[in-house]
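thought: fold this chain, then report.
action: predict
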Amino acid sequence: MKNLLSFLLIMGALASTLSGCGSIYSNYREVEQILAVQTMGLDRGALGVRLTLAAPSTTRPDGSPVSLCGDGQSITSAIQRIRNYSTEEDLFCAHINHIVLGEAAARQGIEGALSYICRSPALRIDTPLYVVRDRTAEELISGVVKGGTGICEVLDAVKSNADERGDSTVFTAAQVIRALARRGSALVCALEYGDSDEMTREAQDSSGGGSKTAVMAGYGILKGDRLCGYIDREDAVGAGFLLNLVGVSDLVLRDRDGGRVTLEITRGGSEITPVWDEEDGSLRGIDIYAQVSADLHEVESAEADQERADYITSQLEAEVSERIRAVLQTSKRLQADFLGLGDQVELADPGRYAGLAEPFDRLLPTLEFRISVSGKLTHTNNLKDV
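observation:
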């Protein structure tokens, strides 16, 4: 009898659904009524939060990008305000795959944003996080139009390029949160907003207006929950060596005759060794040993000999050393261990690390860094047989 009643109840519910009365899907929407948001931007606004949401250009029949903006006392209230004024679509935020922070908002603090990302059922904590240099997130998200596509497609390309090449790393909100909790500072991928390059000139002309895009621009440095500085694009490879996240990246050097040489770094990494004072047990410095392998792609001189190859290798070593040194100097100046050096010192000698008189980040300005680099040309074409 119970089985029969259960069967009848199920059939009754199905009949009501099919007849259009009392549907169990009370929040059902046609696909055409749903706006699938893929990019979220966070700025400071008049009420507290200025929120920008964007959907891909495929959302509209004419292929135009979609962006919506709204203010609120919180992210939740800003989303609700946008939803109230967006009468044509129901916002669907479960597919957000990029979160962009405006520079001014990031400098004032992102604790509220990180808290929302952690707690919101609509967001994934492993969503990539960006900061846009010298701009608001709204300017970037609403302004990017490249060849008829918008910010969603452009950031998808940025992320894909970073994954494939590896000369910069796109960190997720989860990675940023863990780094801040562990060592009080973190890196976040920085974006630059500006004119598209010459390869999109035809698309600009055909669209009848200027074309804007977003490109990788090194890293933003978070200390506490505030943006406190940047690592420029050319020094980002130095951070990669210290984080052991080195991928494919290009370097342009000069040979002994002043000719231009283009190398492509194919792999690399570093090892650190803490240097302790044997008398009082204090941390005096850190020795950094880096290894780098690179292919020679272009060279202006046709001459090939071992001496020239050795000179190019020495230039490669010097360039990598300088990039590493620049990042370390930034870390010392800001007293921010965004590179996780303290974690590596602790792993090398947990007992001595536990006995440090001050937290590691406060010791950074006093530490001496000694850098050595070993380079190798792994594919040199006409130089490989000499």
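thought: worth noting. The domain at 237-386 is CATH 3.30.300.210 (GMP Synthetase; Chain A, domain 3).
final: tokens above.
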